[in-house]
Amino acid sequence: IKTSLFWEMCCNLKKRFLLLYATQNGQAKAIAEEIEQQAGAHGLEADMHCMSEMDKYNLETEKDPVVIVISTTGTGDPPDTARKFVKKIQDRTLPPDHFAHLQYGLLGLGDSEYTFFCNGGKTVDRQLQELGAQHFYDTGLADDCVGLELVVDPWIDGLWLALKKVFLFQKEKEGMNSAVDAVSHSLSAATHIMHELNLSSEVQNLKLEDERVRSSDALSQKLVDINLAASNRDTEPSLVHSITPLSQSALNIPTLPPDYIEVQFQGTHGENPHLSSLISEGKTFEAPVTKAVQLTREDAIKTALLLELDIAETVFDYQPGDAFYIICPNNSNEVEELLHILGLSEKGDYFVSVKIKQDTKKKGAAYPRHIPERSTLRFILTWCLEIRAIPKKAFLRALAECTSDAGEKRRLQELCSRQGASDYMHFIRDSNVCLLDLLHAFPSCKPSFNLLIEHLPKLQARSYSVSSSNLYHPGKLCFVFNIVAFPACPARPVSRKGVCTGWLAELVAPLLHTNKNTLDTKRGSSLTEKISIFARPNNTFHLPADPSVPFMMVGPGTGISPFIGFLQHRQKLKEQHTDWEFGETWLFFGCRHQDRDYLFKRVHYLAFILDELRCFLENGTLTHLKVCFSRDSSTAEVTPPKYVQDVIRLYAKERGYFYVCGDKKHMADGVSDAVVDILSMEMEVDKLEALKILAMLREAKRYLEDVWS
């Protein structure tokens, strides 16, 4: 009764709140859209805007509560869509009570594998607090390393009660004292009851949307129960099969997202748009691949390639340490397979018109900017949609409605339910399952093409570190990468290569020399097909401005890539400025096997890279080269270090700028720990103080990282 009274009183309250999101790759926007959809079920109205749309909201005059969902990009920066907002609230002339009227709740997204976890959200949170804003709800920090939903789902669940408390207090200020007194009397008890009920009153709002669907689900549930009873002998869960207690549980499933896209097929006459029209981040350039080199032996665990692009005919410019983006397509075989399963093979070359449905129930439905106004079905699946994306729970919920088999439908509902969170993590997220895998696993699922546009994110360009110097190789741009491989697993019985690295490897196969014992005979050859690229300048990961400053480079595996550019640039500077003073340079490199994957050491089968590291040592560009091999056995009396972080400890007294590039989880954290230990030992301070010193070095841009998961 008390719970009913609480919600009854809330129904008469003012119910708008401002919902802001700032996203880099679409995660924060998708979560904000989920909040917007759930708000209606709670009798609330979310006024949702991208944080960059500063002409559509005004925090200086905002009276309603504000909910912020913000991601983090790079090594801890706010996303591009938040830059103007952050710059504005960091204005030092603003008074400390500038936002004293503001009440907000913030959900930050990040990845704990990176040093500055959720720093985009933390930056906004801290700055709003400094300007007097008040939390009406505790800040949530979701970790993509373990699964965003572990924090996101309960944070959203608790948001509604927090918002309604704010609205109650607002009404109290407006003079509704009698109503507030009645509700306040039961507020704490109602809160307790809400938790005891485990949000069961909300579950009804999240159940299937109309009586027809509910009746169908009741029948489906009976059929599923029969199927489950018949398969009692199955004791291990899988992508397509659950076990008790999940298989017998009532499910809390997300609300069905309203459809909002309308697709019309037109003729086959016309031309697809240029790839440059797909990019809004900057000017694109087309560059042919002029060289391709395999840097590893055939029996290496990972295959590393070096590609050289000809940028002489463009105005593309870069510095050593910069990165750039490559616009890549989805795998053509996977696109054709998807067309076949969707029953659209014969319409692959048809142009499609994409529009917003006039009768859609989705609030704020907007045309997806990454879909061209007019292009073919095959073009959209190849260049616009991330068909390899791990499906979010909202997508699974929508796919369940397209599934005719009762057992398959129930399993998809389980995977998107709160009760099935563990199965979702194990069989979907951790297994890198994509839409194509789901359609194979659940053959009665037949989604429409508009559903794919609504739920698949934009196909992102891939970023790579530059491995050359424009001063050393004018008109050339080199980069190094491992061909990413996803081995088959029970949830995904097909092995795959990375979207971009697999495509590049296939593209340059004609340029790769097959006989590693001879010199390259194709040095003058290049591909006729060009790669589309655009700049991603790095404002910090550059050589020290003062050439006399010593610096250390830590780059195991392909992490050595930007440091080749550093050394090439340094060599040219030494040749051009013989009167300059140059500091010492250290390179710490590690790999598994000395004779299999020692990059840039023994590329003896290609004349244009012949023991480049030895050349840097001999001409004095590189002062010290320290290497280690983690999988090689040793007959030495003293076992040599296996990892770069171990080698670093042997040179604790060396000083200079510090650069780290490579894998975050398995290397960069270990290097950071080693540096903390060295600081603690050399400066005779405890570990906490050493951590503070390292933070100061990061702040001063003397300890710099270019790392990836």
Note the main attributes of this structure.
single chain, 709 residues, alpha/beta, Rossmann fold, NADPH-cytochrome p450 Reductase, Chain A, domain 3
What report would you give on this structure?
Keywords: Amino-acid biosynthesis, FAD, Flavoprotein, FMN, Methionine biosynthesis, NADP, Oxidoreductase, S-adenosyl-L-methionine. Residues 17-160 form the Flavodoxin-like domain. InterPro entries: CysJ-like_FAD-binding, FAD-bd_FR_type, Flavdoxin-like, Flavodoxin/NO_synth, Flavoprot_Pyr_Nucl_cyt_Rdtase, Flavoprotein-like_sf, FNR_nucleotide-bd, NADPH_Cyt_P450_Rdtase_alpha. This protein is of the alpha/beta class. Among the domains are: 15-172, 3-Layer(aba) Sandwich (Rossmann fold); 261-279 and 329-455, Up-down Bundle (NADPH-cytochrome p450 Reductase, Chain A, domain 3); 551-707, Nucleotide-binding domain of ferredoxin-NADP reductase (FNR) module (Rossmann fold, 3-Layer(aba) Sandwich), CATH 3.40.50.80. 35% of the residues lie in helices and 17% in strands. The strands form five sheets. Strands 1, 2, 3, 4, 5 and 6 form a six-stranded parallel β-sheet that branches. Strands 13-10-17-8-9-14 form a six-stranded antiparallel β-sheet, with helices on one face. Strand 4 (103-110), helix 4 (119-130) and strand 5 form a beta-alpha-beta unit. Helix 11 (393-400) packs antiparallel against helix 12 (406-416) and helix 20 (664-682) packs across helix 21 (687-699). The relative contact order is 0.09.
The CATH superfamily name of the domain at 15-172 is Flavodoxin domain
Indicate the CATH architecture of the domain at 15-172: 3-Layer(aba) Sandwich
**Overall pLDDT confidence:** 86
Shape: globular
- The helix content is 25-40%
Strand content: 15-25%
Kindly name the structural category.
alpha/beta
Major sheet: 6 strands, parallel
Low-confidence stretches: 1-5, 178-233, 514-524, 604-609
